[in-house]
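Case study.
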Amino acid sequence: QLDRGCALHTAARDGLSSVSSQDVPAERPRAVFHTSESDPAKHTEQHEGRLYNIPLEEVKAVFPHGLPHRFQQQIQTFNEARVMVRKPALELLAYLKGSNFAHPAVRYVIYGERGTGKTMTLCHVVHYCSRQGWLVLHIPDAHLWVKNCKELLQSSYNKDRLDQPLQASVWLKNFKASNERFLQEIKTQKKYMWGKRESTEEGRPLREVVEQGLARVRSASDAVGVVLREIKQQSHRGSFRLLVAVDGVNALWGRTTLRKEDKSPVSPEELTLVHNLRKMVRNDWSGGAIVTTLSQTGSLFKPSSAYTPQELLGKEGFDALDPFVPIPVPNYSPREFESCYGYYLERKWLQHEKAHTEDGKAELQFLSGSNPRQLDRLAGPL
Amino acid sequence: PCHDTARALGDSPASLVPCRIMPVRWSRYNPSYLEPEVKKESYQKPLEELTEEEREQMELKAVRPIKAAPPTLSSSVFSDPMISKFTNMMMKSGNKVLARSLMSQTLETIKRKQLEKYHKAPENEKVTIECNPYVIFHQALKNCQPIIGLSNITKGGKTYQVPVPLTDNRKRFLAMKWLITECREHKHRRTMMPEKLSQELLLAFNNEGPVIKKKHVLHKMAEANRAYAHFRWW
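After joint prediction, the assembly is written out as follows.
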């Protein structure tokens, strides 16, 4: 009965907005669990549990990296990108809207059990900030920087540290794709020397630093460091707002599986990328916000039942990130589950004839435990 | 020895247990044991709606022992005995977890391919595209089943390939076996099993592909050896 109540209640409100959306006239009006409001700034509690559409060109521009792999497959199959509006994301957006940017940046840590939607919440916030015109520094998965690195070079800037050219160049390429106009506007504030012959003068656009990093892969990690430093120093001026979005921030304060040539283990602070990112996540700058996610899935040497900030960050990480605003992400509420199930039915993702029945729905809810990832995995073969 | 087996099989009197060596693969249960009933619907029927036979069955269940339910028997609405059989045939060295995940990835791959085709097709062709992976699986298996098989019969020192009718179980087994061997042996080493299997199943659904060809070859051989059909004595 709750759903029918919702249908009548929201259909009236959405009647006007659905008429103005560009639906094909032959299609039935989109059902209860959709909303035609594709600007995250206008999402409120009324939109909770409903899915909003991100146009595919925007997806390519805003998320060159950062979306979970299964979600990317889903975008390809359904030919549309629909993200659910959930309470943790709405909470975060409210904090961001009400925050004072003259004060030091506030750190938000999104935590929760496995597969509850932390990365998707982060992507929702990133979409909001890029729509608002912020400069978004999105690191899709910090764990990729502390494991499985084929090449480790000794850094030319600091003899003790190690460079990761491949990871740095991949990140620079994606960063350039998403923030073209900022790279043109922000100018360097001092001269940087790349080796003996190449240098970037003062006052040149940051784009040249990025291109230098892409062209000379050996100095890519240093280019990343320069970019982060410049952006941090200039953010308090107020010409742009900065969002630092890091997924899997517990990688920065754990252990790595990398080894130096003499087989001694590498600790995270010996990596240039991690060192610079740690400086970025400190709250000694103003004019933006830092939104991070904890992740056990890619983490190293952490038990699979760990999900709280204390367990995943360890003492060092917790002290470095303290104080922060914790944002827990729970499993689907009954309403959100109905919404997700209805979406799968509508997109013909649930093909099994029993999946359309009440028994099938009850079984899906029980087997998945209302966990978004489990529901997705279960609904795949059905 | 037959008294020992009688005692092991639920303490029944020796007269009921035939005195023979039980093969390992056949059931070791006493014939009085009944099969477990897994379907939810049969337990939800109220007493009045039951027919005479069903009432008798219920009374019998109160006195007879029941066999243990095997782990593959599930009361889920989504379980399919054909899919379970296929998964068991794909399994290697008892790794059911891997076999089941491969099967679910296969079904998902089939669904994705068909849905992508469906969304790109014009309106009038959308009806012809089948997106349900289970329908595709069953139809593909049905298309791969041979109607007639060959069996080796030795007569007068020479072995002849004699055309012989096949039971339903044997047809199903051959269809599944051919599909799996085709995917394992005749494809590139680096392709994943879900990808290979989904391709084969989609080809078999449209009556194309190497497995259908193998079935036709078998039929032709049986047709060619028609003359030896009288060698069969069963």
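Observations recorded in class. Residues 45-328 of chain A form one domain. Chain A is about 40% helix and 10% strand. We will return to this complex in the next lecture.
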